[in-house]
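Quick check before the chapter quiz. The format below is the same one you will see on the exam, so make sure you can read both the input and the output lines.
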Amino acid sequence: MLNIVLYVVTGVLLLVSFYKDKKKTKMAIKKAWKAFENILPEFLVVILLVGLLLAIMNPEMISSIIGDKSGWFGVILAAVIGSITLIPGFVAFPMTALLLDGGAGYMQIGAFISTLMMVGIVTMPVEIKYFGKKLTIYRNALAFLFSFVVALVIGVVMSL
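Here is the expected output.
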């Protein structure tokens, strides 16, 4: 129901914008479409990979690797994978929803998402270029450690 309300509100606001300034609204729609075209390939590849992963691995296997029963080993594994993976947030969140449905644990997903957003192993060379080696290492190390705090808080909150 909420989705329908959001779509209706968006449609109404688009019509208001079109009424106020047709040229700007058309330009905004063209820019939005171009952004969508740029995002779509990445999004589809990740969704296909996750779909393939979920088809190959049954929920019990996912649960044993990054589920609640995997404990801190699963949290550490998810944090390491999140640290070395370069996936945009708009792709990562739907992907992790699929993993949660497939048996992944909240703490593990919390560690994965927080390291994915905060730790950048792949982007370290660029970061070192602009901020220096020492600051880059400190920032990434602290972000990695903080991801465990995030995972713990999510685990406690979701178990209530």
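If your answer matched, good. Residues 22-56 form the longest helix (35 residues).
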